[in-house]
Amino acid sequence: MGISRKATARWEGDLKSGRGSISTPQSGLMDGTRYGFNSRFGDEKGTNPEELIAAAHAGCFSMALSAKLTEAGHPPESIETSAEVDLSMEGGPTMTAIRLKTRAKVPGIDASGFRAIADDAKQNCPVSKALSAVPIELDAELEG
Question: What is the reported pTM?
Answer without folding.
Answer: 0.93
